[in-house]
Write a structure and sequence with these properties.
- About 40% of the residues lie in helices and about 15% in strands.
- Helix 1 crosses helix 4.
- By secondary structure, it is α/β, with parallel strands linked by helices.
Length: about 210
């Protein structure tokens, strides 16, 4: 009886999450315009990564409607939603968003998802907007095996490449990316106010700055 009860609870939770996903992605589901997939570190409880996702959605709101694939699609409801509502939808564009997503090794969930989208539709165009590029020297210190070829091959077919800073631009060019590499800065600054009004609180906060 207890096993059956737990099974019913799981089924209910999956159904509730599926309804939640449908509501969250309602613009994507009912859109009659251009649709696009957003690839990034989505739903991983990182405020910066989620802010970048929302910023890119807002920046390109008049261009397309996005579906953002979760970083972890482990729940049955996530997989079912993708299979039923996303997998066979024509999406002419895939956006690679922010965070340090371009790694110096060939094994990357982001690279895999780009290629999966392109395999589903050979006409899918890749737009790179705001990610950082992993530093090879740092990667080697971590013991990673360096293999930039898979990324270079994919990026050289991209419609547009924009990275968050000059270090990332230099890295891609040194890897052998021949497509023009632009500097877009971090998409999160889209929400930066035109002017700052100080409000002294008498408190201190720590800010971690990352280059590239």
């Amino acid at each position: 009886m207890a096993e059956k009860s737990r099974g019913n609870t799981t089924d209910f939770n999956d159904a509730a999450r599926l309804v939640s996903l449908m509501w969250k992605n309602r613009r994507f589901l009912v859109s009659s315009g251009r649709r696009a997939m957003y690839i990034g570190c989505v739903g991983n409880k990182n405020f910066g990564d989620d802010l970048i996702r929302v910023a890119i959605h807002d920046i390109f709101r008049d261009v397309c409607t996005f579906y953002s694939q979760p970083y972890h699609s482990v729940q049955q409801s996530d997989r079912l939603f993708f299979q039923v509502f996303v997998r066979n939808v024509e999406m002419p564009m895939v956006f690679l968003g922010g965070g340090t997503l371009i790694k110096s090794h060939g094994k990357s969930i982001y690279l895999s998802r780009i290629r999966q989208a392109q395999n589903r539709n050979s006409n899918t165009r890749l737009v790179v907007f705001g990610p950082g590029v992993e530093d090879i020297e740092l990667a080697e210190k971590k013991g990673h095996k360096i293999n930039t070829t898979p990324w270079v091959e994919t990026l050289n077919q991209a419609e547009y490449i924009g990275v968050r800073g000059p270090l990332s631009k230099h890295a891609l060019e040194s890897w052998g990316v021949t497509q023009p590499v632009h500097i877009t800065a971090d998409p999160g600054i889209y929400y930066a106010p035109d002017a700052l009004t100080p409000h002294p609180l008498g408190k201190r906060i720590g800010i971690n700055l990352a280059g590239g």
